[in-house]
């Protein structure tokens, strides 16, 4: 039995669109920060049973096609013919409003490959995790991580954006803001497929996002949190422009999302760095300077007393947990 933990990540340059949905190859490279707050722990045991089994937070669940796909890849690589018993626990506080597929498939890739006796490199783990969920390729690593779009299965992998550092001393904080706990209306897979197929702006998005990677890497190297935030906010809104320009159009914004964005801009006018990013749901994440966290939460709570904030710092890459 092997047990692994992986943390979720927030994309600063987003992955939005699959060039090859079977191989999970994206149109553009993406860049994220692994967080220290929200994680999944998964144990995998290979057993003499007829079928794979999956428990989430102690309750038996159907084994999704994506889980089967990742386990099948592990069986193919190891030659093992057994069934997998998978137990997963999500440590994502209800107040977080963060998706967990990134942490889930990163933890599954590490636990399943180790349980099967494989000793995969970080790059191989990133490729394996990518087959479960694109963003999971990045959660194999801690700190700032770039997922190279690549040309084929072996060239589409993630690695640290800046070599040899998990950047835990970086003066950045991410505030996860909860505005809505309801289920996503359009999954990220379905949303990106609609943008790719119907938004006339899609090709411009993919080119612009790719061009943002070296700019973001330079801002990270300079530890320029204001630059990182400004680039991330622009990139997020460009991604969301491909949903508003799809046919039929759709959006992940809720009224509160726009109110929070407006408030962030007001806080910036007061001289604090506070930028917004948003994934395939209405809950924004604020990008700010570590030293400003209390002041920014205070500013928000003056106007929105019921909002919940979870303050996150850079987190570690996936690792094995000893029982
Ligand atoms: C908006 O990785 O959840 O969060 O590959 O279909 O599992 P699948 O999609 P997923 O998409 C993440 C989209 C995003 C941006 C990002 O994390 O880069």
From TrEMBL:
One example GO MF annotation: diphosphomevalonate decarboxylase activity
Residues annotated as domain Mvd1 C-terminal: 175-307
Enzyme class: lyase
Keywords: ATP-binding, Lipid biosynthesis, Lipid metabolism, Lyase, Nucleotide-binding
Cross-referenced InterPro entries: GHMP_kinase_C_sf, Mev_decarb, Mev_diP_decarb, MVD-like_N, Mvd1_C, Ribosomal_Su5_D2-typ_SF, Ribsml_uS5_D2-typ_fold_subgr
Domain Diphosphomevalonate decarboxylase-like N-terminal, residue spans: 6-158
Pfam families per the UniProt record, alphabetical: MDD_C, MVD-like_N
BP GO terms, sorted: isopentenyl diphosphate biosynthetic process, mevalonate pathway
Entry EC no(s): 4.1.1.33
Protein family according to the UniProt entry: Belongs to the diphosphomevalonate decarboxylase family.
Protein name: diphosphomevalonate decarboxylase
């Amino acid at each position: 039995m092997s047990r692994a933990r992986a943390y979720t990540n927030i994309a600063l340059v987003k992955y939005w669109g699959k060039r090859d949905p079977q191989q999970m190859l994206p149109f553009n490279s993406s860049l994220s920060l692994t967080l220290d707050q929200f994680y999944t722990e998964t144990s995998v045991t290979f057993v003499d049973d007829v079928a794979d089994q999956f428990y989430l937070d102690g309750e038996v669940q159907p084994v999704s096609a994506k889980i089967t796909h990742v386990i099948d890849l592990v069986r193919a690589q190891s030659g093992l013919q057994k069934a997998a018993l998978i137990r997963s626990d999500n440590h994502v506080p209800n107040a977080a409003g963060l998706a967990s597929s990134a942490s889930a498939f990163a933890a599954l890739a590490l636990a399943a490959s180790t349980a099967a006796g494989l000793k995969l490199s970080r790059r191989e783990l990133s490729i394996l995790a990518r087959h479960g969920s694109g963003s999971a390729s990045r959660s194999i690593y801690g700190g700032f991580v770039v997922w190279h779009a690549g040309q084929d299965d072996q060239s589409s992998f993630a690695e640290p954006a800046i070599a040899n550092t998990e950047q835990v001393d970086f003066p950045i904080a991410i505030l996860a803001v909860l505005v809505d706990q309801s289920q996503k209306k359009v999954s990220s897979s379905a949303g990106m497929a609609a943008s790719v197929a119907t938004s006339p702006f899609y090709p411009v998005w993919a080119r612009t996002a790719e061009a943002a990677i070296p700019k973001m890497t330079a801002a990270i190297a300079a530890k320029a949190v204001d630059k990182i935030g400004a680039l991330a906010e622009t990139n997020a809104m460009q991604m969301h422009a491909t949903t508003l320009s799809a046919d039929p159009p759709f959006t992940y914004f809720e009224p509160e999302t726009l109110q929070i964005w407006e408030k962030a801009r007001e806080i910036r006018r007061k001289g604090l760095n506070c930028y917004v990013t948003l994934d395939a749901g209405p809950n924004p994440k604020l990008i700010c300077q570590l030293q400003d966290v209390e002041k920014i939460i205070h500013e928000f709570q003056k106007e929105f007393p019921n909002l919940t904030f979870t303050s996150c710092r850079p987190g570690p890459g996936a690792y094995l947990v000893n029982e």
